[in-house]
């Protein structure tokens, strides 16, 4: 809820390869509608909740409030940083 008040938020998943980080973050890979599946991950649940908070604030305050939501998906693997939302981005090194 602090994100709606203007604070940054971070979700950080750390662990061994194959430990379930992707499943925890996204949910089942086969589901076409990850936002309604009962096993949906943290990311779809967070988006759903965050947009419901924004909607609630807009209903309360109308045009008096504006929201700007930004999102990044990064992967750090073997000291390389990958932008998972931009396939054309260059690999960054730590």
Structure overview:
- With 94 residues, this protein is of the alpha+beta class.
- The chain is built from two helices and three strands.
- The chain has a three-stranded antiparallel β-sheet, with no helix packed on it.
- The longest helix has 20 residues.
- It is globular.
- The model has no long low-confidence stretch (mean pLDDT 84).
Secondary structure elements and pairings:
Blueprint: H1 21-26, H2 42-61, E1 74-77, E2 80-83, E3 92-93
Antiparallel strand pairs: 1-2, 2-3
Low-confidence stretches: none
Q: What is the average per-residue confidence, as pLDDT, rounded to a whole number?
A: 84
Question: Which overall shape is indicated by the principal axes computed on the Cα atoms?
Answer: globular
- Report strand order across the widest sheet: 1-2-3
What is the C-alpha radius of gyration, as a whole number of Å?
Answer: 16 Å
Span from first to last CA? Answer: 31 Å
What's the number of extended β-strand segments? Answer: 3
Strand content: 5-15%
TL;DR of this structure?
This protein has 94 residues and is of the alpha+beta class. Helix content is 28%, strand content 11%.
Descriptors:
single chain; 94 residues; alpha+beta; 3-stranded antiparallel beta sheet
